[in-house]
Amino acid sequence: MHSFNYFLRPIKIIEDSNIPSAAKIEYAENYQRDFHLIKYKPNYPAVSHLVLHELTHLELAEEARAVDENQLFTSNQSNRSKFFYTFENDAAKLRKKGIPEEAITNYLSAIFEGLNSQIFNTPIDLFIEDRIYLRFKELRPLQFLSLTKLIREGIEATTNKEIVLNAPKSIISKSKKLNLVNALHFRELFGVDMIMEFNPTRAELKEAEELYKEFKEYRKDKAPGEEYELIQHWGEDLKLDSYFQLIPESEHKQKGY
Known about the structure:
Elements: E1 11-15, E2 23-26, E3 36-40, H1 47-66, E4 71-74, H2 77-86, H3 88-96, H4 101-135, H5 140-159, H6 161-166, H7 169-190, H8 202-220, H9 227-237, E5 245-248, H10 249-254
Parallel strand pairs: 1-3
Antiparallel strand pairs: 2-3, 4-5
Helix pairs in contact: 1-4, 4-7, 4-9, 5-7, 7-8
């Protein structure tokens, strides 16, 4: 059994049905706590896989921190304003449908946060699932069940007729490409092909394959913190890089943020 060697603070694990994703980790230093907190939705299958996934998130961060390569994924009002400006035409269409302004703002804010979460997590999640697959063979059935549900959620989010009708087309396409990367990885690990269930265009599938190819290059000899390079590269490739910044953690601390 593999042991984690980087955890210098206590770790608490709790159920939370209100989190936006299946599971999340709140790093101690980001919440002024003396412990890390992992939250997971109890109604998901194989929650032990979700918890292990978050623990491995922490391990990667601590490995990067040990060689001063950890980075913080941040966004500010300027990033948010750029996003809202880009999709002003979509907001105008919603206004014509009689949607209240507050609801439109909340809707676009949710898309902004969700897309940023996706561009941050997708590259890192590939490295995480690789580690889990290789280290914890006895948990592979649970990993399979858990990832299957998450991929099916991605299919629903990018093919549901109502979602597709109302969401900006470019956002659906970018999200679909990132979800396709997860499906490509799942197919490699478990031999199950769910790719065409996303109804991708040829161009979407080709770009997802290019992103995945880049991941495989990094995977060969990944150094601590290199996952952040992949996040930046994919953000630029998908034209999402104006919506976030990656800030070296050491620089963040020096400025006293």
